[in-house]
Each structure stands twice: as C-alpha cells, then as structure tokens.
Amino acid sequence: MGGRAAANRVAAPYEASTWAYEWHEAPTLAHHERHEAPTSAYEGPEAPTLAYGPYPSAYTPTVPALPRQSFVPDEHARSATASTPVPTRVPAPVPVPTPAPAAGRAEARRAARRRRSGGKPDALRRLIPQALVVAFLAGGTSAFVASDKAVRLTVDGVPRTMHTFADDVHELLQDEGLAVSAHDIVAPGPGSVLASGDEVVVRYGRPVTLTLDGQPRRVWTTGRTVDDALRQLGVRAEGAYLSASRSQAISRRGLALDVRTERTVTFMADGREHTIRTNAATLREALDEAGIELGDEDTTSVPPGSFPRDGQTVTVMRITRTRQVREEPIGYKTEKTRDSSLFVGTQVVVRQGRAGARQVTYALRTVNGVRQKPKKIAERVLREPVTERVVVGTKPLPTSVEGADGLNWSALAHCESGGRPDAVDPSGNYGGLYQFDTGTWHSLGGSGRPQDAPAAEQTYRAKKLYVQRGASPWPHCGRRLYR
Fold first, then answer.
1. The dihedral of CA 168, 174, 175, 176: what is its sign?
2. pTM for this one?
3. What is the pLDDT of residues 125-148, one digit of tens each?
4. Do strands 158-164 and 149-155 pair parallel, antiparallel, or not at all (unpaired)?
5. Domain range spanning residue 225?
6. In terms of domains, do 195 and 212 share one?
7. Radius of gyration of the chain measured on its C-alpha atoms
8. Same domain (yes/no): 410, 339
C-alpha cells in the first residue's frame, strides 16, 4: 500500500484520465475495489472521468476535494465481520498539477496520445486469443448441435427414435451395427442423405424352402409371418393346404413350407365321371375324397402316389387276374447224313421225328373288361421230342437213259402237273412233275415222296419208267412225248 501510494504521488501534468480507487479491506472481507492515480499529463479542458462518473464542472487548477470513502459490506460480509473493526480506506491524496504553458500543454497532449496509441495493441493482443477460443467453442457447439439428428429407425417392425450424427443411411446402419445383404430391404436406400425427422426401415430377408404343388424351390422373403411371405411370393392360398399356420413367425434362420393349392381333378371310374376340387398330396387321397375305392388289383392311368395336377383327367382301371394252363408241342430236330449211294437230291428218312409236349401256365389280365396279352409264368415238359434222321444222296444223276432221251418230257410234265415239281393231285396219291404214285416211285429207286425230289431226278425216274412200260403210265398225256 505504501509503494502504490508513493507511485500515485508522483507529480505529472494534469490530464483527463479514468480514475479508479482501490479499497484495501481487512483480509476477511470478500469485496474490494481498486483505484489508480492519473498517469497522463493534462491535455486540455477535458473533464476527468472517475469510477463514479465525470466531474460536474470543467477543470479548475485546484486540488479536488475528495470525500472520505467508507466501505459498506453486504449482508454476508457484515455478519462475518461484525466483531472485527474494519479500517476505512481512502484514496491517496493527489498533488495539484501546476498549469503548463501553452506550448507545454500541446506537447503533453501529443505525448498522451502516443501513450494511448502504444497501449492499445497490447490489450488487443491479450483479447484476440480469448476471442478465438470463444469463437471456436461457439462454432463447435453450433456444428455439434447442427449435426445431431433425431431419426426413427424401424428394424423388422420394431421402431425406436434415436439421435445420430450419421450423414446418410449407410453410416447410420454401420453405427448401429446392422449388416444388410442383397436379400434385405432398406428404405430409403443406403446412399440416401439423412435429415432430422427421417424414418429408416430395415426388413431382413428370410430363406424359405417352399414346396408349391409338389415343386420344391428356395426363395427369400422379408415377410415376418407365413401370411406375409405368401402375399410377397404371390401364392394364392385360398383353400390351400399349409404345413404351417398363417400367423406363424418366420425367424431369420428361415422356414420349410409346404403349400398345396386347390386343384380340379376328374376321375373316370366304372363308366362315370367324377370331378372334384382338392388340395390332396396324392391321387390316392383325391380318390378317397371323390368316394372311389380301389380294389386290391385296381390302379389308375397314372401312378396313384403321384401329385394330382390342375385339370388332370385320371382313368380308374378295374383289373381282374386269372390263370390258364395249355399243352403245347415241342418241335423235334432233324439230323442229316450224307450217302454216296444215293443220287444227288435224294433224301431218305431213316427215323421219323416226333414232337414232344409241354404244359405252360399263363397269367391272364383283364382291364375294364378287356383281355390283355397273356403272360407265361410257368411251364413243364410232358414228353421229350424225338430227333429225325435223314440220309442225303451225293451220287451224281445220270445225264440220259438210252431209248428215252429224244422224247418231249417237258410237254408231258406240262400236261400232267402244269410243270410244277411239287404238284399233288386232289386225292393225294400222285405227285411231282409226272404224277408218280409212291409205290412206282420207290420201285424206280426213288425215296420219300416224288413231289419232294428235284425236277431232274423226277425226269430221270420217268425215263426209266418209259423204258420199262412205254407211255402207258400216262394214258391221257403220254402221246405228248412224241410231239
């Protein structure tokens, strides 16, 4: 206090200044005031400014009468210091400045202006950082408040209102830890800009193994119930069979759903037509709904276990089964042996073959009264066949017969048999080109039946007969030998 008062007593030309008073109080007081002595020279007839306001009159070169000041504490300080005497503080007396000449006063004013202009940058330098901090805090707070958005987020039908600083929907989903895929629905889209008051809806996709009218497939839906999924997939479920309730919830893991829509099926049974609407899984179930019974052997034109299609017509087949036993012959084999003593083309049966016999059992199937092809189901041999043995001649035929080569044998053959080597008369006793009877044929060295022998052998045997008996064996056609 002593040093500050001494400084205040330094003589200086009197100038307009701002006066302040520093009140020194007891250490226990909470309030004090500061005062400073005027530090600049007098610059003119300006009224000095005190802490309590300007002087009421212009400058007078006399020492102003300073009233004694006393501190009036507030209620809190008064109660705190009621028992402690408080010294009264008054401002230190200021010496009366002596008026300077006119030139001195002008110089003093210039000096005061220099001092005032020199002090302002320091004050500004102290205020600029504080102003910047305040501006930064104010701007940050404004940006913070401006970035905050109140949005409504609905995930699978569960809504909630929240505050977020996300700029778009994608950032909001990331902040909330919501991962979406191509099967999910996000509205508005992930790239949409967010604004306060927006609503974002997320509907997760759910896999459904859908078997629709017997055809299985895997689909995705964002419906949360079976009914929602059916509507999304466009399945008309009126009158349909559903393996799950319409109100059943579909979890994120999915659901297996069997849907059988109502179809029109027509059955043709026992000469009548039966048309029904059904959602049965098999034709057998549909037959039961139509009141048609199948016997043990009955069936349908399509497998009874197949899925009935809309507009399908199915024929019921009434089936009866029986058995039939037949006796059938077993053919014999023929063994041929070559014999050089017989002419070429001559065959002699050494042992006649005989057919065997077997018993065969057939299954007979009748469908709607129509008998089907029998099916052999068993057989038994009753008699074994006997193999036939035949001797075949290899001896070359003679080219001519003396006394008969010049005759017209072709004309005779044409007259007797029409030129056919295997010809047989209506009685069955004569055969061949020249209508031999069997006894005559054998007497001439032939074997078997004449109609079975080659034409050359038959002609040879006929020539031999002519040498023996002439043309008499052919009473009607013998004369043709001479033409």
1. positive
2. 0.42
3. 566 666 665 555 555 544 445 578
4. antiparallel
5. 206-260
6. no
7. 71
8. no
